[in-house]
């Protein structure tokens, strides 16, 4: 296993606070000085006789591209009265409002390449589903099924007020537009290629939100089945690492996606939710019709803990260390603790694909965001593993 990036040796400090008393006139008793409180003990790091060094881990900034499905079925109405589109928009915009300005975010929508088909297709309220007029001229598949067609509507950049407005305006421009088809393989491949080519530094991810299965590309000679979507996600984690997080509307009726098709995409994209999730097709984040808003909020909250600000580079010295002899120590609020490696990704750390970075999960991710916190990597000691 090879690791890259370097950082200086961690230096542990202790601060002694000294209080001094003041003298007085000769006829006034001298007030003795207030004893200085004992200095706090230095932060402790995981160590063993075989330890070869302790290094400060460097945080990797985030570079996230939101990939939003704007196909016609996203206008299907939910039990709440909102449409899938309106609820998805609200959830994404709430996420943007909560993220720090240090996050780097962009946005892309799909399908692209075709004009909207509002003149021929819409949601029929009697069936709450897509219906098109007989004999309508379906757009050519040539452009929307070509990965080269896809461009970010808003390039990834620091998430200040201007960037937030740009993303919101870009997404809101499709509020009244009705697009045909779900070219999932082409759109995901285009998004991943855009992230690989992005000049913005940082841990690169694509967050895919879709309500459908791949359709409408067979005539273009493009395989748009799930196997090709999975292949695109696998390409994302090879070379320059770009992970794919998957959020899908999974209710069986009304053109919703199928869990058994979306789950393998998350696995291939390096973001499966827990070990063994393949057996139950739970590797992605499922959103249901009845609880769309709350399901989406939970999914975005969990993804934000992974995609933003909790990825750290390992020191170059790790390249010479057995991967089973790496430990992580978190110092926050004046105390230090060993963070266990957690393959279940609930509360701990684990390697990202490629092994040059670690990702924090759960409370460990929350704690490392505290002001003045520090993450150290200790090499040479047997890795502390979370209890199964």
How would you describe what is shown here?
The chain has helices at residues 84-98, 161-172, 184-197, 226-237, 259-268, 292-307, 363-368, and strands spanning 53-56, 58-59, 62-69, 104-110, 121-124, 129-132, 154-158, 203-210, 242-249, 285-287, 311-313, 326-332, 335-339, 348-351, 357-361, 374-379. It has 388 residues and is an alpha/beta fold. It has a six-stranded mixed beta sheet, sandwiched between helices. The chain has a four-stranded antiparallel beta sheet with strand order 1-16-12-13. The model is unreliable at 1-31 and 37-46 (pLDDT under 50).
Class from secondary-structure proportions: alpha/beta
Mean pLDDT: 86
Count helical runs. Answer: 7
Bin the helical content. 10-25%
Low-confidence blocks of residues: 1-31, 37-46
Estimated share of beta-strand residues: 15-25%
